[in-house]
Amino acid sequence: MTTLASGTDTLTRDALTVLQPGFAGTSAPDWLLRRLGEGLASVGLFGRNIASPGQLASLTAQLRAERDDVLVAIDEEGGDVTRLEVRTGSSFPGNHALGAVDDADLTRQVAFELGRRLAACGVDFNWAPSADVNSNPGNPVIGVRSFGADPDLVARHTAAYVTGLQAAGVAACTKHFPGHGDTAVDSHLALPRIAVDPAVLAERELAPFRAAIAAGSRAVMSAHILVPALDPDRPATLSRRILTDLLRGELGYDGLIVTDGMEMQAIAGTYGIEHGSVLAIAAGADAICVGGGLADDETVRRLRDALVAAVRAGDLAEERLADAAERVRALARWTASAAASASADRGGAHTDIGLVAARRALRRTPAAPFTPLTDAPYVAALTPVANIAVGDETPWGVAAELARLLPGTETGSFAGEDAGHAALIAAGERRIVAVVRDEHRHPWMTAALDTLLAARPDTVVVEMGVPQAPPRGALHLATHGAARVCGRAAAEVIAGA
């Protein structure tokens, strides 16, 4: 194991150890390698860091050449939120599709195969699964990232996902504690508030986290949300009542607690990332995730110095920081052991399990026979503003898969009050396939479908978000997610493949 740089005191090393920063580029920058030598123990990967599985494997090898026990984390939920396949779309459907199938063993198999691919690239820590109960259909940031709106369903699939992922030797990080499903605000932009009583929280929000803990989830990620019934003053990430008293005390959780991205405005815009990071560690968090938007040495230095200064000023107990750092190291030890024991099992790859799951998740209305298209259609994608967690780099829809089955298929993206009329003009005489994402959340999308179906009642409608709006069209397909395999499953039905 690499020896940390001489002259770096224990306090400073511990402050670096609890940070999980991101960085720019597809190879490790010099500053990051230097910080690994000084005590940094984790890094976070995003789409900007990944070009191919081979490149990713080279990157993780580069990191481990500097520090062999470094935790390499990634935000790879599968489905809409993919970093491994950020430029192509995911080979795995997301949680909502798995919840629609409601086969816990299928969920376990999907998570295992996803974990197997991550492990093959040298990634050993995944910020997944989302255990949020999507009780608010208008939720702007969770949606298809949730297994569903039923707490029992979400609980059993969260447990299955944790079990499958960790069987592949990759640590699971169940999120977003104590539950982000009943929010109407995106915490990337502001501080959401969940105003329900403790009994509802216990029965609904906390049920999946209890299941995850029972399944042995090695990490839990906190949410940047205010839950007055638990703490009227501070968001969960900064709340001792929530992280220490509830999660550690009442729920008996003893693994790593990691924060959601501290650069998100729910924290950065109210407390600032330096003060917020100090408060988070003091509250009971063990690792500070930062790097979705801030990914440089200056950020790491500022956070390290803020933690050291807080200890020296008496605002953060040195024992609490040391305990947090030890929990990070303990997870690194677990991943090394789990990788060794899992390697023998990874030969049983089921590389098509994602497509199998996407096909099973597809729901069609009406159930009556549909005459498949034989001529190339026009795909009108009614495109909402991208969910920040998903990003706008990842392609979605059915056009690419339909073009493979029906060469000559063309597509266009439309939004706003004139979207329906614009799509009709662009389509001309061709059969229209209208693709939507959370129609129930976007009145302009509903109006556009009204326009399309009034003029062209033979339009096929594909809903790739949460299917809350009434099904309509000559054929309505609900994919329960916008992953590439979800688009392929829909295209197969449309083209009769």
Automatic annotation (TrEMBL):
Domain Glycoside hydrolase family 3 N-terminal: 40-329
Superkingdom as given in the UniProt entry: Bacteria
GO molecular function per UniProt: hydrolase activity, hydrolyzing O-glycosyl compounds
Entry keywords, A to Z: Glycosidase, Hydrolase
GO biological process: carbohydrate metabolic process; peptidoglycan turnover
SUPFAM superfamilies, A to Z: (Trans)glycosidases
Family affiliation: Belongs to the glycosyl hydrolase 3 family.
UniProt protein name: Sugar hydrolase
Protein species of origin: Streptomyces phaeoluteigriseus
Species lineage: Bacteria, Bacillati, Actinomycetota, Actinomycetes, Kitasatosporales
